[in-house]
Amino acid sequence: MGLRTRFAAGFARQLGHPSGPAGRLVARMLNKGNSRAVHGAVDAADPRPGQSVADFGFGGGVGFRPRLDRAGPTGHVHGVEIAETMLDGARRRFAAEVGGGRLHLHSGDLTALPLADASLDAAITTNTIYFIEDLPRAFAEVARVVRPGGRFVVGIGDPEEMRKYPFTAHGFRLRPVDEVVELLQAAGFAEPERRRVGESAGAFHLLVAERAERAEHAEHAERDGPDR
Ligand SMILES: C[S@@+](CC[C@H](N)C(=O)[O-])C[C@H]1O[C@@H](n2cnc3c(N)ncnc32)[C@H](O)[C@@H]1O
Known about the structure:
Bound molecules: S-adenosylmethionine
Distance between the termini: 54 Å
Structural class: alpha/beta
CATH class: Alpha Beta
Oligomer: single chain
C-alpha cells in the first residue's frame, strides 16, 4: 500500500472513530469544517426552551453550544458517542454544563442508544451514517427514543461530492439520499423535508423528519393483537 493510500485509510478510520492525539486534531478539524452544516442541523431540529435534545456521534461537539443556548436553563442536551477521545474532550470543554446537569454525555452506539423510549423532543446526527452498516437498526433506535411528533435531522455530505475525496474509498458507505429517506420512513418517520446547506450542486443535505404519531411496529402490534 502506498503512502498516500495509507494516509487516506488512516484518516478515514479516524473520521469514523477519532482516537488519541490524532483524534483530537481530527475533532478540531471537524468543528471547523462542519460548523455550518451542524449549525444548520441544529436550526432544523428547532430545539425549544426546556426541551430534551440529542446529538448522536457528536465528534468535536461543535453543535453543543447552540443547542445548550436554545434549550435554555431547564432544557437537557444529550450527546452519544462511541469514541472515548471525543467523550473526554467534551467532558473537559463542557465541564460546567455537565456538572450543572444540562449536558449528559453517554458512551454508546447509534444502533443501541442508552436512552429511554420517547425521551427526546429532537435529535440530530451529522456525518455519522457513513460509518454505520446496520442503518435500519440505527434509525429504529432513534425512532424509539424520539417522542411521537418529535424531530430527527440527518445531515450527510452529497454522495457524489463525497466520492471525490480519496479517503471515502476506505469503508465509507455513501448511500443515495433517496435510500436514506426510505430508511427513515421505514423506521417510523414521516417523509422528511429535504434541505441543503449551501447553493452548490454538491451542497450538504439535511433530512428533517418528524417521528410519526404511531410507529409502524405499534400499528402492527395493534392489528395483529398482543398474543402474536
Ligand atoms: C465524521 S465524525 C462527525 C462528527 C460530527 N457529527 C460532525 O458532523 O462534525 C463521525 C463521528 O461519529 C462517531 N460515530 C461513528 N459511528 C458511531 C456509532 N455507531 N454510534 C455513535 N457514534 C458514532 C465517531 O466516533 C465520530 O466522532
